[in-house]
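Issue: copy button drops trailing tokens. Both records pasted manually instead:
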Amino acid sequence: MSTSKSQRLVNLVICLRSTTAFLSADQIRGMVQGYDGCETEAAFLRMFERDKRELRDVGVPLEQGASLAPGSPAGYRIPARDYELPEITLTAEQAGVLAVASEVWREGERSARADGALAKLSAAGIDPVRDGDTTVAVADPTELSVAALVAEAVADGRGLEFSHTSAGATEPVARRIEPWWTGSRNGHWYVVGHDLDRGAPRTFRLVRMSDVRLGAPGRTAAVPPTGDVLALLDAAIARVNPVATATVWVADGHAAELRAMASATTPTERYGRAGADLEVTAPLAELAALVASQGPDAAALAPPGLRDRVVTILTAATEAVR
């Protein structure tokens, strides 16, 4: 399988960073995946020279010295003292802005310099769009555009003006906020801030926002500590989409995702079919969507709120195809 240029650069950085000795060109050729496709030594040397130049262009400290390999006058390594960065501490606002920026960058064309920067980050074990175990990404292009504006407003301390369509509503309502924080929870993007018209904190799903515009700079209300802001967000999500432990029946051979989420499984025959009762703990909205997507191969048994949500989804789908 062929190795991309960016992956080859990552491999080269990892190889040269993992040793204190100077490695000869021949040693590097044998150790770094990506050089094995070179048919001649001349082709390898040309590629290696280009790679060294690109690494140096993006600031990777490639050091040259005497190699231990017999008959080889030069070797290469990346010294830890010059390559390692001091510890970097980001505020929640800065991390949110970087997450959005990295996603925007991934949507565009990557330059050679960007590829080199990615090589340096990846070799250091950093993925710019992952935070712990949570993937930070904005998939929808419209939501991505909104996320970029919201992140800019948070970073610059500017207000936001937008139209917001609440769940179940058909008409948008004009809103104005001073944003405090933006980021993801359970795969959805939110903004939390001070609502200028309500005079109180409010939380909004980015996907429900449209016609977003940057407002005036400055704040009329103090920004709470990040922990308090995130507590407000979690409380708002819990009101709209509470996490619950539910019982769901699924037919044999179906609903693999629901089965994977189950903390307990009891083989049960229902509706004249073999299957299992699953105990699943998850946000009700996501769980209802999963059950509804299985059609006759799954059924919500408890709690009543889950059954109601599944019926609402299936009723809407039936009406849409009439």
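Record 2 (pasted manually too):
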Amino acid sequence: MLRPSFGLAVLLTTLVALGPLSTDFYLPSLPALMRALATDPAHVQLTLSVYLVGFAVAQLFYGPLSDRYGRRPVMLFGLSLYLVSSLACMLAPSIGALTLARFFQALGACAGPVLGRAIVRDVYGPLQAARVLAYISGAMAVAPMAGPVLGGWLTVAFGWRANFALLALFSAAQVVAIFLLLGESNAHRDAEATQPRRILGNFGALLSARRYLGYLLCLSFIYAGLFSFISGSPFVLIEIHGLSPQWYGASFGFAVAGYVSGTLAAGRLTLKLGPARMVLLGALLGAAAGTLMAALAFSGGIWGILLPMFAYMMAAGIVMPNAVGGALAPYPKMAGSASALMGFVQMSLSAAVGIAVGHAYAGTALPMTTAIALCGWATLASYFFLVRSGVSD
């Protein structure tokens, strides 16, 4: 069985990072991709939203499968699928082919975050899981900080396809590392975990627990606001504010630095304050930052977007690991299913918000900033109506 170690933490960080890296890395290339494939912003943003749909759906299967067969074999399958799909993205001749390849890329990518979180719960236990997830999230954020910068340079030097070539190389290295280094962590395999009745029963039990549902919605809404920025910022910052792909990457990195700050704060304070209080702190900050950004949408210039987004990202860095840790803590025997259900709702809601932002885009930042503000307030409402009132669950 796996034991806590620095090497394990590094590998888990790369696995959890695979999801956001697959979206953040090619963000600077979206306007160039739009021109190269002769399409429009709504169809380009669909490659992001379809990715989230695939990511969401696959999680419903990875969780129960890992509860039944173990984390390691399911992880190897998922990352092998990701590798093949990344190559298909690189070679896509049209926006339709790219969108389809992104869907299958997502089916493979979600094995990393879903099973990575479950492995953290397996290895570190309920008390340390939120703290370890916070530190992993902070280290993981180096990838989306550097990813858009590197992606911008690659786009300028070699074109948008180079981004997917690098993702394929990254996933190939992960497959080798998992095969050689990652042992099995699931000590509570459930022979009936993949039976439809058991799956539905587990999901029903989870959703009937107000505290779990509250954490799930806090995670989902705060991430939906973050995804609004991911899907809308290439057009707002590059097309409206005139940034180059390289400077867009730097601006995105500045915003992600807020996420790093939030995760570091969570890592230091979670054991003292507990996941629930940390989620409240992050939700308050997210609602305030989103409101400020929406108010400055027309008059604040580029810093009217980036400074509030820094604060919103900090809020996300506080909320997300604590929401996951708080939700998974009571469920050692179905950590895979609990993690999968959280991921499904998180990605489904974010995909819907991303599609709405894409279709509402009309040359202004207002759709993106309004969505971020609404998601911040929805996170706060989820805490007060569900997490706080579900203490007895």
